[in-house]
Design goal:
This protein is mainly alpha-helical. It has 18 helices and no strands. Helix 1 packs parallel to helix 12, helix 3 crosses helix 16 and helix 5 packs parallel to helix 13. The protein is globular. Bound molecules: tryptophan. Tryptophan binds next to helix 1, helix 2, helix 10 and helix 14. The site of tryptophan has 16 residues, from helix 1, helix 2, helix 10 and helix 14.
C-alpha cells in the first residue's frame, strides 16, 4: 500500500516538475518584465492575471485532457481523437501549428538564452562591479551591436539544448528542477529585498498594481493574453505531449493550479525585483527586451556579495531557460523523427541547426538588419509577435474548443472530478468564457 502510494506520488511529482520546468523560463523574468514595462504597467499586469485565470487555466487543463486521452504526440492525438469522435479531420492543424510555433519561438528564445549565458560569465569577470546605469547600458548596447559575439552565445546555448535533447536525458533534469526552482525563488526574494532598500519600491508597486486604465488598448490586451500563453507554455502542444504520459490518478485541475501559481509568483517577483531598480536609476520601464540586462547588473554591481549572487542568478536563469528550451525543441524533433527516416540523433541535429539558422536572422535584427522591417517589425519582433499574439492563442483556442465541445461532457466531468455546480462552472468557462475571451481579444485588437 505505502509502496503504491509512493509510486503514485513520485510520478505526479515528476509530472509537475516537468511541466514547471517548461513553464518557468525566460518568459517569467525577461519577457514578463519587459512586456509590463512596454505596455504601461498595472493595466497590463491585471489583464494578464485575468487571462491566466480565465483562459490559461482552462486551456492548460484542456491540453492535458487531450494528451492523456490521445496517448500520443499532439498531431496524432488530435487526428485520432477527431476521427474517433467523428469530427473534422482539420483538427489536426491544431497540432501542426503547435510544432511550427515551437520552432519559431526557440529561434529567438535561444538568442536571449545566449544573453543570459554571457551575463553569467561577465558577472564572474566583475564587468558590472560598481558600474552606473550609463555604463551598464553601454555594455548592453555594445553586446547588441556585435553580431559575432551574439552569434557565439546563441550557438553556445543551442549546443547545450541540442546536446541535452539528443542524449534524451530530459528526464534527468527533473531532479535539478526540484532543487533549482526554489533557489531561483530565494534569489528573486533577495532581489526584491534589495529593491526595497532602493527607496523606490512603493513606486514599483504602484507601477505594477495601480492601473491607469487609459494605458489599455486592444493591443495591450492582446499582448497580455499572448504573455499568458507564452509563460504557461500553452498553444504549442507541449503540455499535450506531457499529458500523454500522465496516469489516470493525477488530478488535472489541482495540478494546473499548482503549476500556474508557481509560474505567476515567479513572474510577479521578477517585476518587483526589477522595477525598483528601474525607478531608482532613472531608467525607462519601456526599455524593451534589454530591460533585465540593464537593470539587474546594477543591483549585483552594488550589493554586498553581488558577484556571487549575480553569478547564481544568471546561472539559474540560464538553467530555467534551458529546461524551457528543451520543451520547445522536443516536439520539433519528435515531428521530424516520425515523418522522416532520420534517427533521433540526426533528427535532433537537423531541427537544432534549422532553429539555429533562424536564430541568426533574429540576432541580426539588433545590428546589421536593424532597419530591415516586415510589417514595421524587425525579424526578432516579428517572430515574437507572430507566435505569441497569433499562433499560440489560435492553437490554444483550438484545444479548448475541442476539449469543451467535442469530447464527451460526462467523461470529462468524471476525469476532472467535477460534479454539480463545479461542473457547470467548468462548462461555462471552457465552452464560453475562455474561447469567447480569446476571440474577443482578437477582434478588439483588429479594430484597433
Ligand atoms: N514557458 C516558457 C517561458 O516562460 C517558454 C516556453 C517553453 C514556451 N515551452 C513553450 C512558450 C511552449 C510557448 C509554448 O519561458
Amino acid at each position: 500500500m505505502s509502496k503504491l502510494a509512493h509510486a503514485q506520488w513520485s510520478s505526479k511529482m515528476a509530472f509537475i516538475l516537468a511541466a514547471t520546468g517548461s513553464a518557468v523560463g525566460l518568459g517569467n523574468i525577461w519577457r514578463f518584465s519587459y512586456m509590463v514595462g512596454d505596455s504601461g504597467g498595472a493595466a497590463f499586469v491585471l489583464v494578464y492575471l485575468a487571462c491566466v485565470a480565465l483562459v490559461g487555466l482552462p486551456v492548460l487543463v484542456a491540453e492535458w485532457l487531450i494528451g492523456r486521452r490521445g496517448q500520443e504526440n499532439p498531431i496524432n492525438a488530435m487526428a485520432d481523437l477527431a476521427k474517433r469522435g467523428g469530427h473534422f479531420p482539420a483538427w489536426v492543424l491544431v497540432g501542426i501549428s503547435g510544432v511550427l510555433a515551437a520552432f519559431l519561438i526557440l529561434s529567438f528564445y535561444s538568442v536571449i538564452g545566449g544573453w543570459s549565458l554571457s551575463y553569467t560569465l561577465n558577472t564572474v569577470l566583475g564587468t558590472f562591479d560598481g558600474q552606473d546605469a550609463d555604463s551598464v547600458g553601454e555594455y548592453f548596447g555594445a553586446l547588441l551591436g556585435n553580431p559575432g559575439i551574439l552569434l557565439m552565445w546563441h550557438s553556445a546555448f543551442m549546443v547545450l539544448v541540442i546536446g541535452i535533447v539528443a542524449r534524451g536525458v530530459t528526464k534527468g533534469l527533473e531532479g535539478a528542477v526540484r532543487t533549482l526552482m526554489p533557489a531561483l525563488v530565494v534569489l528573486l526574494l533577495i532581489l526584491v529585498g534589495y529593491g526595497i532598500t532602493t527607496g523606490h519600491f512603493g513606486e514599483a508597486m504602484a507601477f505594477m498594481f495601480q492601473p491607469d486604465w487609459s494605458a489599455l488598448s486592444g493591443d495591450v490586451v492582446l499582448a497580455a493574453m499572448g504573455q499568458a500563453f507564452f509563460t504557461l507554455s500553452l498553444g504549442m502542444g507541449i503540455m499535450m505531449a506531457y499529458g500523454s504520459y500522465l496516469g489516470e490518478e493525477v488530478n488535472l485541475l489541482g495540478t494546473a493550479r499548482t503549476v500556474i501559481i508557481l509560474d505567476t509568483v515567479i513572474a510577479l517577483l521578477a517585476g518587483l525585483a526589477i522595477f525598483p531598480i528601474v525607478f531608482a536609476n532613472g531608467l525607462s520601464p519601456g526599455e524593451g527586451p534589454g530591460l533585465i540586462f540593464v537593470t539587474l547588473p546594477l543591483a549585483f554591481g552594488s550589493m554586498t556579495g553581488g558577484t556571487i549572487l549575480g553569478l547564481m542568478f544568471f546561472l539559474l536563469l540560464t538553467f530555467a531557460a534551458l529546461t524551457s528550451a528543451i520543451s520547445l525543441l522536443e516536439p520539433v524533433v519528435e515531428f521530424v523523427e516520425e515523418r522522416t527516416p532520420l534517427s533521433r540523433l540526426t533528427a535532433t541535429l537537423a531541427s537544432g541547426v534549422a532553429v539555429w539558422v533562424l536564430g541568426i536572422a533574429a540576432l541580426m535584427s539588433f545590428n546589421v538588419w536593424d532597419d530591415f522591417l516586415i510589417l514595421g517589425l524587425n525579424v526578432f519582433d516579428l517572430l515574437d509577435t507572430f507566435t505569441s499574439k497569433i499562433l499560440l492563442p489560435l492553437t490554444g483556442l483550438g484545444a479548448i474548443v475541442f476539449a469543451a465541445w467535442c469530447l464527451d461532457r460526462q467523461g470529462v466531468a468524471q476525469e476532472l472530478e467535477l460534479s454539480g455546480g463545479t461542473e457547470s462552472l467548468w462548462v461555462v468557462v471552457a465552452r464560453y468564457v475562455a474561447p469567447l475571451g480569446v476571440i474577443a481579444v482578437f477582434v478588439n485588437s483588429l479594430l484597433g
